[in-house]
Amino acid sequence: MNTLEQAVALLREGGVIAYPTETVFGLGCDPDNEAAVLRLLHLKQRAVEKGLILIAATVDQFEKYIDANTFDQYPHVLNSWPGANTWLVPCKVSTPRWLCGQFDTLAVRVIDHPVATKLCKLFAAPIVSTSANVSGLAPAMNAAEVRKQFPTDLDYILEGSVGKSGSPSAIRDARTQQQIR
Predict the structure, then answer these.
(1) Per residue in 34-43, pLDDT tens?
(2) Cα–Cα distance measured from residue 32 to residue 37, given in angstroms and rounded to the nearest whole number
(3) Maximum CA pair distance of the chain?
(4) What DSSP string runs through 10-69?
(5) Helix-then-strand count for the chain, H and E
(6) Which domains does the chain carry?
(7) In terms of C-beta density within 10 A (0-12 exposed, 13-18 middle, 19 or more buried), how is residue 19 classed?
(8) What is the spatial distance between Cα 106 and Cα 62, in angstroms, rounded to a whole number?
(9) pLDDT tens sequence across 158-169
(10) Is the pTM of this model over 0.85?
(11) What local confidence, expressed as pLDDT, does residue 166 receive?
(12) How far apart are the first and last CA of the chain?
């Protein structure tokens, strides 16, 4: 079994993993597994009310969470992907609160990193993606920094290099195009 297959197997079992993205190392899990998401939030010391980002290999992978017709209204969103552009898009009423927090939107991004893209393709669904750091600390830029912040708590660290950005992705509201972060 190769490393991507191991990571996917652990995601399916409810594991929390770390992996490289175009910007920083991310922490991820299965977005439909409430226990995994709550564990990730606990490790990161992040409040559930803040919501999370989902990354995917294709926009179709968001269909369960976001009304597909929404994207027809936001060509600027589609034109920015794949890439390090995260958009707040209105989510379906059925989207779990542990993903969208206190909001009626969900942060989504079609990833443009070879390892993370393959991870989402093999998982055949989006995954939670939040920077690999304890809230308030700098995001991890490599596997060694992930291990330093989470020495024993993660189920797997997928090795690889992050992109050249060096900071978390920009987050914009799809309705207004206003930058939030």
Answers:
(1) 999 999 999 9
(2) 8
(3) 45
(4) HHHTT--EEEE-SSSEEEE--TT-HHHHHHHHHHHT--GGG--EEEESSGGGGTTTB-HH
(5) 7, 8
(6) 3-173 (3.90.870.10)
(7) buried
(8) 10
(9) 999 998 776 677
(10) yes
(11) 63
(12) 38
